């Protein structure tokens, strides 16, 4: 839920994220919704979400091994972390799960596949491991 009391829900079956106003039963698609895939207008099993103060939606795109940012009103997303297939390099993610974006725009991603948390400063081409579970 954002600070304007909109509720955001990831729909894993329709590969989309919807935003609901209080009392709204249908919601509107704010990310994905163009079928399963790896295009910039698609998601493949969206799981965890983070919504910033500008109502941009960050989505952990599970099977695409990336985190996407969808600016409010955008028809396509921006890859802000990963997207280079699953792997252990600092340019890759492996099954991203939980996310958090701080006030400087730095993204923190917990990865299921790598058992670690990686930090991606805004605009960076690779992340830095901040916590490694070593399995």
TrEMBL record:
Protein name in UniProt: NHL repeat-containing protein
Gene3D superfamilies: TolB, C-terminal domain
Keyword field: Glycoprotein, Signal
InterPro entries named among the record's database cross-references: 6-blade_b-propeller_TolB-like
GO CC annotation terms, alphabetical: extracellular region
Residues spanning the membrane: none
SUPFAM superfamilies per record: Calcium-dependent phosphotriesterase
UniProt source species: Rotaria magnacalcarata
Keyword Transferase attributed: no
Classification via PANTHER family: PEPTIDYL-GLYCINE ALPHA-AMIDATING MONOOXYGENASE (PTHR10680), SMP-30_GLUCONOLACTONASE_LRE-LIKE REGION DOMAIN-CONTAINING PROTEIN (PTHR10680:SF28)
């Amino acid at each position: 839920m954002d600070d304007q009391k909109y509720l955001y829900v990831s729909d894993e079956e329709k590969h989309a994220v919807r935003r609901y106003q209080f009392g709204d039963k249908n919601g509107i698609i704010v990310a994905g919704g163009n079928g399963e895939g790896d295009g910039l207008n698609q998601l493949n099993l969206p799981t965890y979400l983070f919504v910033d103060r500008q109502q941009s939606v960050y989505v952990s795109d599970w099977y695409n091994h990336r985190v996407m940012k969808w600016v409010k009103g955008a028809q396509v997303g921006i890859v802000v972390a990963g997207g280079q297939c699953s792997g252990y390099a600092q340019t890759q993610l492996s099954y991203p799960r939980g996310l958090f974006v701080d006030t400087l725009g730095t993204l923190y991603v917990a990865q299921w596949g790598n058992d670690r948390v990686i930090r991606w400063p805004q605009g960076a081409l690779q992340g830095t491991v901040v916590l490694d579970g070593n399995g």
